[in-house]
Amino acid sequence: MARAKSSVARHKRHKRVLKAAKGYVGGRSKLYRTAKETVMRARQYSYRDRRVRKRDFRRLWITRLTAGVRASGLTYSKFIAALKKAGVELDRKILAELAVNDPDTFQRIIDLAKHNTAKDG
């Protein structure tokens, strides 16, 4: 009975890792062991940063909303609270898009929010 060798599986594994390391500098794209370490680290970063990207975009949208709302004498937190109370279900992404690209519509939303806070006051 012949012993099992892993040559085909190993070759396939090495090819897969080296293909993923294509474009890396020096031994990182040529040497299996170095390439494997680099690819593993790159994948950890991409996994982490897919989550970080979501946080970053949310922060950007909030910053844009804050700037747009402050011009009308309202704070971000009061604006969001008033929108919730008014039943407006636009998310921060859409609101920030309106603040940047369609100021007239955004101003109407701010007026709606102000009208809602004036009732409470």
Features:
c-terminal domain of poly(a) binding protein; rod-shaped
Task: Give a quick summary of the entry.
By secondary structure, the chain is an all-alpha fold.
Task: Summarize the structure in words.
With 121 residues, the chain is mainly alpha-helical. It has a single domain, classed as c-terminal domain of poly(a) binding protein, CATH 1.10.1900.20. 76% of the residues lie in helices and 0% in strands. The chain has 5 helices and no strands. Helix 2 packs across helix 4. It is rod-shaped, with a radius of gyration of 26 Å.
Write the SSE topology:
Blueprint lengths: L6 H14 L11 H39 L5 H11 L5 H10 L1 H18 L1
Helix pairs in contact: 1-2, 2-4, 3-5, 4-5
Low-confidence runs: none
- CATH homologous superfamily identity: Ribosomal protein L20, C-terminal domain
Helical region count? Answer: 5
Mean pLDDT: 93
What form results from the Cα inertia axes? Answer: rod-shaped
Instruction: Please give the share of residues in helix.
Output: over 70%
- What fold name stands as the CATH topology? c-terminal domain of poly(a) binding protein
Which H/E pattern describes the elements? HHHHH
CATH top level is Mainly Alpha
Structural class: mainly alpha
CATH architecture term: Orthogonal Bundle
Beta-strand residue percentage? under 5%
Largest sheet, if any? none
C-alpha-based Rg, rounded: 26 Å
Structural domain count: 1
How many beta strands in the DSSP annotation? 0
Termini, distance in Å?
Answer: 88 Å
